[in-house]
Specification:
Strand content: 5-15%
Helix content: 40-55%
Shape: elongated
Strand order of the largest sheet: 7-1-4-3-2-6-5-8
Distance between the termini: 155 Å
Oligomer: single chain
Order of helices and strands: HHEEEEEEEEHHHHHHHHHEEH
Length: 479
Amino acid sequence: MHLSGRIKIQLALFTTISVVAGLLMIFGYIRLPATWFGVGHYTVTVQLPRAGGLYEGGNVTYRGTEVGRVTDVYLTDTGVAAKLSLRSDVAIPADLEAQVHSVSAIGEQYVALLPHSGNPPLLRNGDVIPASRTRVPPDISSLLDAANTGLLAIPRDNLKTVIDESYTAVQGLGPDISRLVKGSTQLAIDARANLEPLTALIDQSRPVLDSQGDTADAITGWAAHLATITHELKTSDASVAGFIEKGGPAADQARQLIERLQPTLPLLLANLVSLSNVAITYQPALEQLLVLLPEGTADFQAGALANMNNPTKFKGQFLDFKLNFNLPQPCTTGFLPAQQMRSAVYEDAPERTPDALYCRIPQDSPITGVRGARNLPCLGRPGKRAPTVAMCESDEPYVPLNDGYNWKGDPNGTLSGQGIPQPPPGSPPAGPPPPIAAAEYDPATGSYIGPDGHVYTQADLAQSAPKERTWQTMLMPPN
């Protein structure tokens, strides 16, 4: 028989398509290599208390994805065992549970592998999942008996009423129910597409749920307060409506007022913010001041009242002033040395030293009183006294320089270690030191030398003045 070239080409194409289709059937659908020789698969045995409807050829899933088949189900001395053929390219942790589920109400059981965590070790060929880590669905006959018993316990008339009312409730809602079913189906599809984040969310939701349980009392109180607020809003409905109606114009007027007060008001508010921060820091001291102020005012008023029983011509309060100079002596410990003390005649503002200058003697020293920066109370640390905020906020203790009887420090430098400024080489010699801010006068003539070196005469200070001058009259302005 003679075949034309066209027929030969057609036969060759048909043979090729048949071979490819057969190979796809063998390796893709039937999977003969995996079925006969176990290529790309490994076997795991699952021990079950009963079969639960599981059959040979059922699916095996891991996190909702098919990873193998049930190759055999057989009886054992303690129950039932099922052999699972699992894919080698899927890493499945050994710490898991094997549960038998049904795809639908008519059966189609499959094995679901549910891991406790994703950590190693992994399942290997020949591993056995014990019955303590397996679950099977309840027997369908028991479920039907229980459902039948439950239905018999419901009065027939009441059951008929429920069915009639259910029909009335869903009558005409077919499109809405259809949309609900479609939305649920799409939600399930999206959940399966995002299975890993969804399972991670479920695993990590326990701390959040525990926190809600731990704060149940607070949530109950919040709900009660919310109910109180809503009740008050309902009671004051007219006031709330008036506030909503007039709130807009009032806010517009407030805005216009603020615009007219610019830029004074923003600057004032900014200063008030700074003042509020200071007030918050010194809140305990302000509270104590407010507590003592009424009592101090009452004591002052009681002392200022006229004393009618006073036998002298002075019916008011007696005041006795005593001027004690250098008692106690001034504290010099912790300040600049004498070589760096500035005269009071200077009117410039030099740079401050980086270190804090204060009387650094013991806090309970008998040399001087308790006043001074060293005994300032730390408002944030009750019971602690320190001269600076940084020392108050730290655990650094206060350390005095000496007992207060003599000056302590380097006479050629400040506390910060800076030396006295020296003139550059080649400069002319420095002039005499600036004069001190005090001058002695001659009581006989009233003459004295001022800080500028000139001689001045104050006639009313001389001994020949017509009226004796006292220190009180020296403090009073002329005339």
